[in-house]
Here is the input.
Amino acid sequence: MHQFHLPDMTCGHCAGTVNQTLKFIDPACEVQVDLARHTVRVKSQEAREALAEALSEAGYPPAASTA
Ligand SMILES: [Cu+2]
Here is the structure.
C-alpha cells in the first residue's frame, strides 16, 4: 500500500486524472482518493517511485511528506 500527498489534486477532475494515471501504470491497482486531504492510497505491486514519477508527469507531483 502506497500513500501519496498530492497538493495539486483539488477537484473531481483531478481525482479522475490521478486515477487514470495510476491505472495506466498498473491496471490491477486499487485507488482510493481523499480529495479533502489531497491524498491518494494505492494498493499496487508497483514500485513507489514508478507511481510517483507517473503522477508527477501527469501534473500532480507528490509532496515530500505523505502525512
Ligand atoms: Cu481539479
User: Anything to note?
Assistant: The chain has a mean pLDDT of 95.
